[in-house]
Amino acid sequence: MHISMCVCTGVSRIIDFLVSQHPVARVLREHLVFKIAPMLNPDGVYLGNYRCSLMGFDLNRHWLDPSPWAHPTLHGVKQLIIKMYNDPKISLEFYIDIHAHSTMMNGFMYGNIFEDEERFQRQSIFPKLLCQNAEDFSYTSTSFNRDAVKAGTGRRFLGGLLDHTSYCYTLEVSFYSYIIGGTTSAVPYTEEACMI
Questions:
Q1: What is the CATH classification number for the domain harbouring 141?
Q2: CB-CB neighbours of 10 under 10 Å
Q3: Which residues form the active site (predicted)?
Q4: pLDDT (0 to 100) of residue 140
């Protein structure tokens, strides 16, 4: 397994947990519907790329106008999200794009900045809860921005499309390790340590 497959292994474990008989998983299934696209870049990952597709596109910069020919997985997921958003019977509340980060430590999130201060404050609650419940998640590394370079990302595009009750994040997790708060020692991510 090469490094670009690590995130998908984590997603696989999330799916395993959600379909398990764990009491928390049962409660989640009773109240929520999860739609999971485990990998939008299968051809690129197969070739060892973690950012670019077989055709050389960084798919996380093409959310504004994905081509069904050049970005078929992205196009399909975007159409599904728009269909769900337009369905009055569905309340689309969270979009979380999961990535591995090649230079930073810990888990952290990117979120959007909104003019509405109350919406911005509500958006910060989920990362704060993660920080309180996951020793490898860093709220201080979490960033809320509207950087022009990120305009084509799912988080930015969907944050502008969806209504004020929806929250869009990018969850980044280090390829390497995390630092437990109050220490300087790095704890490497290992397969055994990631078991849910």
A1: 3.40.630.10
A2: 18
A3: 172
A4: 93
Residue positions annotated with a catalytic role: 172
Number of structural domains the chain divides into: 1
CA distances from 195 to 4, 36, 106, 116, 191 (A): 18, 19, 17, 39, 7
Q: Show the domain range for 21.
A: 3-188
Mean pLDDT is lowest, of 72-76, 101-105, 130-134, for: 101-105
In a domain, residue 20? The reply is: yes
| CA distances from residue 77 to 19, 47, 171, 196 in whole angstroms, order as listed | 22, 22, 18, 27
| 84's tokens | 């769900």
For the chain, the straight-line distance linking the first and the last C-alpha, in angstroms and rounded, comes to: 20
Model pLDDT for residues 6-31, shown as the tens digit of each residue: 555 678 888 999 999 999 999 999 99
pTM for the full model? 0.87
